[in-house]
Amino acid sequence: MENPGEQPLISLRNAVKTFGPVVALADGSIDLHAGEIHALAGENGAGKSTLVKVLAGLHHRDSGDFEIEGQPVSFATVADSRAAGISVIYQEPTLFPDLTVAENIFIGRQPRGRFGMIDHRLMRDHASAIFEELGVPIDPDRLAEGLSIADQQIIEIAKAISLEARVLVMDEPTAALSGHEVDRLFAVARSLRDKGAALMFISHRMEEIFSLCDRVTVMRDGRYVTTRMIPDTTPSQIVRDMVGRDIDQLFPKFDAQVGAPVLEVEGLNRAGVFRNISFCVRAGEIVALSGLVGAGRSEVARAVMGIDPIDSGTVTLLGKRLKPGQPMAAIRGGMGFVPEDRRKQGLVMELSVLRNTALTLRDGLARFGIINARKEAEVAAEWGRKLQVKSSSPYNSVATLSGGNQQKVVLAKWLATKPKLLIVDEPTRGIDVGTKAEVHRLLSQLAVDGVAILMISSELPEVLGMADRVLVMCEGAITAEFPRAEATPERIIEAATDHAKAAAS
């Protein structure tokens, strides 16, 4: 059926939101029905986040119709949205680490007992009942500090249930989760749907949309494009709707001439983190470091770059041994590093797009300690053009860009140094399908140009589609190596699990 209910629980039609001359939302339209999970899809910059913030009461729309069960509403604050039964769970939950789980759930509205004192027992009992309803074993008395992202998101869902939310918006909730954690989150989402809640699910991962959702609405360039029933469409159709064209090749792999070793790692050890790590990456070669979250992949990359310490082992770049713990020496030697967390480690969010792009070249752009502003602007313009960074002005803060464009700025920053070795940690996490294809094409072209690439990725299709060789890690050790022709999902997963460790012992 086209509509799972006679009347939408939430209806947003033709919503417009502008920020000065920038139109963030030109036509935001979506209907959410009770008892359904509705996906919202679109490229970075399509207007999804702005639409969510309108629903959440963070932004007030300039025009358009907003109704709850057929009645017009207008939210001035987040509290108005919550009072109407709408809860938003963001990709990075914001719990208070020094409070207990139960205190985080009921913060600001703790149950009171005699003489107005907080009734901690009743609060714990309420929290326990919600976790029992969700089918997840979380101790209400434990501190939030140290909880996994997955558990933090479950606590946010518990908070929404305690608020008697009828609409739950989940914004990229699986970006930092393992496969098991995603399965648990999806089980909770389906349970809430079956109890009559309306859920909106935002994700760039087509397999998640098609396994979890009932309908999907697509946005492009701030505008509503279409709504489709999941059983009646395909991932290819959704991608066409998102980008306005066919993505013929998500993993463009160009023929590259593999040359001499650029990076040679021998016997790298760090107690409790990784052990006996040895591998090489040759010119023109893309080597993928695969494995489960927590296997030690990012830690190895950071140690190779000299960011993190090592106990023993050697890193050799273009025949020259690098001193441990000296990232600037690695950069001067021809190494570039695109970190997993672009916002915290790859960019200075307060600075402009221009300044971030030229950040790695500041010494070369300075004379007597003063940066040549004209040359800085030229560098930023050149790489912004090459990577098609979409920004209304290079002088705007990089924080104003979409996730995909922020990733392009990080790449531009390092490509401007003309590296011989480029380490990319989760290069396409959290970015849309169209931008993913652009990043993959860029990596392939870099390999053709003779750059050696070490790629860390948790997405098996990306590993299989882009890598010439796959190194698999499990609990801090490399358990297998596969050439491209022999790499299969089954082999990689087997090598990434305890099964491989048991077989090797």
From TrEMBL:
Membrane topology, as annotated = Peripheral membrane protein
Provide a Gene Ontology MF annotation, just one: ATP hydrolysis activity
Q: Which Gene3D superfamilies does the record cross-reference, listed alphabetically?
A: P-loop containing nucleotide triphosphate hydrolases
Listed A to Z, the keywords are: ATP-binding, Cell membrane, Membrane, Nucleotide-binding, Repeat, Sugar transport, Translocase, Transport
Q: Does the keyword Cytoplasm apply?
A: no
- Which Pfam family, any one, appears in the UniProt record? ABC_tran
- What compartments host this protein? Cell membrane
Stretches that traverse the bilayer? none
Which residue intervals define the domain ABC transporter in the entry? 10-246, 258-500
Primary localization class, coarse:
membrane
What CDD domains does its record include? ABC_Carb_Monos_I, ABC_Carb_Monos_II
Q: What domain of life?
A: Bacteria
Gene Ontology CC annotations of this record = plasma membrane
Q: Which residues form the signal peptide?
A: none
Write the protein's name: Sugar ABC transporter ATP-binding protein
According to its UniProt entry, this protein's organism is: Tessaracoccus antarcticus
